[in-house]
Amino acid sequence: MRGDYALFFGLWLQKPLQIAAVTPSSKRLAQVMAELVDFDRPGPVLELGAGTGSLTRGLLQAGCPRHRLIALEREPSLAAALQRSFPGIATIVGDATALDEHFAELGIDRLCAVVSSLPIKWFSVAAQRAIVEPCLALLGPGGVFLQMTNAFASPIAVEPLGIAGERIAHVWRNLPPAQVWAYSKPADANAREKQ
Ligand SMILES: C[S@@+](CC[C@H](N)C(=O)[O-])C[C@H]1O[C@@H](n2cnc3c(N)ncnc32)[C@H](O)[C@@H]1O
Question: Does the CB atom of residue 134 touch ligand 1 within 6 A?
Answer without folding.
Answer: no
